[in-house]
Every structure is written in structure tokens, then in C-alpha cells.
Model the fold of this input.
Amino acid sequence: MKRGGLCICLALLLMLLGACGASGSTANDSAAADNGAAQTTEGAVAMDTAETGTAADFSAVRENAKLILSADLTLETQSYDAACASIEQMTAEAGGYIESSGSSGEKGGRTANYTLRVPQDKFETMFTQLGETCHVVSSTRWSDDVTTAYTDIEIRLATLRTKHERLLALLDQAAQMEDIIELENALADCEYEIDTLTGEMRHYDDLVSFSTLHVTLREVQMLTAVSEGTGFGAQVSRAAQSGLDGLTATVRGIILLVVTLWPVFLLMATAGGVLAVVVARRRKAEQAHQQPAPPTVSAAPSEPDDPQPPAPPDA
Done:
């Protein structure tokens, strides 16, 4: 009996050990399978991300980039009226418009300032035509990439519009007055944010669709020399041109000063003439006063026709 009981105990122990081993291996297999599935899913997600990133880096970014193109030009001309008319005509032909313009100065030294808006696809053409029409002193152009800001506005607008629809649905279901008032206030705030973001998006669309060119046009008698290079020859050329321009400006300044102050010069000449006449008369009077008087000649006593001898002295 003792042996039979011992055998039974051993058999039960072996059965328990076998069951634990089987359950352990099953758990390990299940965990391994789960890890393998997770790794497979992560690999698929990484591959999809890589493919999406490649498409965004080339096609999507290139096609959907929001670039604001701008330029600053300083121009000179000797035909001011014709140059202004040409700038306005080129802007109209490009399908753009003049956002602002102004002119100052007198004829011969006038200055015009333009802010031109042209379609983005006409920006390069307009920039080149301005340089061909007038003498370019300086020019700068640049671009601002607002793609990130524009995309952020789009995302925020989508979120707000979804929120707006949910608030409307809740308002339809609201029964208590407090809930209705609270939902209406939330709707008003949401609509205000939507209007604000919509205005910002329209502003970006306008800046992207129409590029901006700031043009300063100066009327000059002689065009400013713009020499290329930094060598000794270029420096000599610029120095010679600067000296000639300086001499010309000095002569013009003197002539303009004389013309401007001609009443003063006329008054000074008149005063000088009067003073010269007064001095001349005074000198003449002094010379006449200082000149000695001519000597006077006394007349001899006339002798009688019949001279008489002197009387003899008394004895």
C-alpha cells in the first residue's frame, strides 16, 4: 500500500511538471509571435513614412510651397516722363496693378516711388524689363517661405470648423436656457476665430499670388556709373566718373546759386555803383580844395603922356 501510494504521488508530480512546462512554452511562443507581429507592423509603418516623406520632399513641397516674392530697385533716367509711363504700361500688360505711387522734387531732379503688384509668374519678366527700361543703380530680390504658417492655419481652421459643427449639434439638443446661452457664446468665439484665420489665409494668398516690387525712379542729368569688378581699373573708372560728376554738380550748384540770389547781387551792384560815384565826387572836391591859387599880377602905374621934369630943390 505504501508503495502504491508513493507511485501515485510520483505520477501526480510528473503530471504537474509536464503541465507547467507546456504552459510556459505556450506563453513563450505567444509572446514571440506578438513581438514578431509588432516588429512587422513597425517595419510597415516605417516604410510608409519613408515613402510619404520622399513624396513630400519633392512633389508635394515643390507644388504646394507658399513663396512671397519681393524686390527693391533703384533706377535712374534722363527721360523722367517717358520712364514713368513705361513702368505703368508694363505693369498693366503684366496683369498687375499699382498699389501706391508718389512723386517729389522739381523738374530736372524729380523722384518717383512705386509699389507694384504683379502675378507671381510675371515677377521675373517684370524685374528684367525694369532693368532694361531704366538705368539700374541697385537691385535686390528675395522670397519668404510661408508654407509652414499657411499649413498651420489650414489645420487650425479644420479643427475649428469641426468644433463649430459639434457645437451646433449640441445646441440643437440643448433644452435648458443656461446650456443654450453657454453654447451660443462658445459658437460666437469659434466663429470669430474662424473669421480671423480666414482673413490671415486670404492675406497670405494675396501675397503669394501677386509679387511686390518697390521701385525708386530718379531723374538725373548724368547716369551714375556702375562698374563691375573691384580691380584697379574699375576703381580708377569709378573715381574718374565720381570726379566728373562732382565737378558737374559743383558748376550746376554755383549757377543755381547765382540765379537764385540775383536780386541780392543786383542790390549789391547798385549799392557799389552809388558808393563809387560818391567816393569819386568826394575825391574830386578834395583835389579841387587842395590845389594852390594862381598868383595875382599887380598893374604898373600909367605914365603921363608929357612927362614933366622934377622940380629943383629949394636953395
Remarks:
- The chain is about 65% helix and 15% strand.
- The first strand starts at residue 67 and ends at 77.
